[in-house]
Amino acid sequence: PVSVLREALILFQHRFTEEEVTVLDQLGTDDLTVIEGDADRLTQLFSNLFENVLRYSTKPGELKICQKRKESSIALYIEDSGPGVPENSVERLFDRFYRVDPARTRSRGGSGLGLSICKKIVEVHGGHIKAENRRRGGLRFEIVIPL
Question: How far, CA to CA in Å, does 116 sit from each of 39, 46, 81, 95, 135?
Fold first, then answer.
């Protein structure tokens, strides 16, 4: 999953630069962790999360990615610099068609499906995903997938 995440970063590098989002790659050198999964769907997962960073982060922004290898799983963390979401919306972020700001139109704020698709992709891989507001602002996504 780490090599797939890095490949997705490469696909988005130009857009991150254009949108003034600095990428802090703290994944380390562990590209050898292996899971049974679908690289295309994992790319879609990471791409959806990166689209959210580009769409909702304050500019200039920051994207931090890191990992933690556990005994029987890998945890990947994707954090942005802000502004985050209201606390009462955090649990609903993965609901289909949910938008934090209901006034957003599809052309300006997406369809409300991206994060629900992310959740489904992670669950199909036997894992789970959660979001939380960071103390310094922004969102932190934790993706845990079994090895």
Answer: 18, 13, 22, 6, 24
Q: Rounded to a whole number, what is the distance in angstroms from the first to the last CA of the chain? A: 10
Strands 73-80 and 61-69: antiparallel
Could you tell me the pTM of the whole model? 0.87
C-alpha separations of 17 from 10, 13, 86, 114 in Å: 11, 6, 28, 22
Looking at residue 97, its pLDDT comes to 59
Which phi and psi (to 5°) does residue 65 adopt? Answer: -125, 135
| pLDDT tens by residue, 37-61 | 899 999 999 999 999 899 888 889 9
- Which of 138, 132, 126 is closest to 42 using CA atoms? 126
pLDDT tens column, 100-114:
654 343 444 555 688
- Paired tokens of 97: 């068609």
CA distance 20 to 124: 33
